[in-house]
Amino acid sequence: MKQILLTIDDAPSKHTITKLTWLKKHTIPAIFFIRGEFAQKYPEQLRAIITAGYPVGNHSYSHPNFSKLTLEECSNEIELTEHLINQAYKETNLVRPYKIIRFPFGDRGSRVISSLSNSSVEAQLQTYLAQHGFHHLNPTTSSYIDIGWDLDPQDYKKKHIQDIELYKKNLAQLLLNYASKSGTLLLHDFDTNPELFAITMNYLCQNKYTFLSPKEFPCPILPDKNSP
Which helix (H) or strand (E) holds 130? Predict the structure, then answer.
């Protein structure tokens, strides 16, 4: 039986609470990666995620390509969202269990910033994350602190939002062709794609996938830079 670690990027949205209700009803764990500009738009939904007991991670403030930014710009993106996450925890009187992060597009900032030292934003960002208390939930599976994914059904693509049957076909092929016992699934909490969340979750439940809690996942998590 295949095992899934469910991760949901670009939260929150106007549909977040509906998704939380579904997940809680079916006792399905998940990680929500928070986009700062959306957290400002939907603060109640962010608090609802936290109150429901789901861990949240940082997904930057405005979702840029980090390889196009300076280290200072990258850290500003992270810190703006950290402030919003910490504020939400304070407002709910709950303790944040750990600090985790997923970079937009899986972009770790690979641009070389000094030809003499071969230093890169990527290396400096990993140092920054370590110094600021971020960590990978299962460090034995990755040398990077940030968390990636290995299953992307592309629920953000306009063609899938407009053609549900095409999305169903793509989802089924992706999962059937995935050879590993377990994988990290990437979904998105956009205002525009709530139907695809329901379709995905129903497919997984009907096909008896097991959902891992964040502390249980054993699989390597590899980023795909083509995804939001």
Answer: helix 121-131
CATH number at residue 131: 3.20.20.370
- Taking the complete model, does pTM exceed 0.85, yes or no? yes
Number of domains in the chain: 1
What local confidence, expressed as pLDDT, does residue 119 receive?
62
* 227 within domain boundaries: no
181-212 per-position pLDDT tens digit: 889 999 999 999 999 999 999 999 999 999 99
pLDDT given for residue 218 in this prediction: 45
Q: What are phi and psi of 227, to 5 degrees?
A: -110, 150
In sequence order, the 6+-apart residues with CB closer than 8 A to the CB of 35 are: 9, 10, 11, 59, 60, 61, 62, 63, 81
**Two structure tokens written together for 138:** 């299962």
The range of the structural domain enclosing residue 112 comes to 3-211
Taking only the tens place, the pLDDT of each residue in 115-157 is 444 468 889 999 999 999 998 887 666 789 999 999 999 999 9
Closest by CA position to 121, among listed 78, 152, 86, 61: 78
**How many angstroms separate the CA atoms of 149 and 188, rounded?**
13
Residue 219 lies in a domain: no
Domain assignment present for 223: no
Nearest by Cα to 62 from 44, 40, 43, 45: 40
Q: Please indicate, yes or no, if residue 63 is contained in any of the structural domains.
A: yes
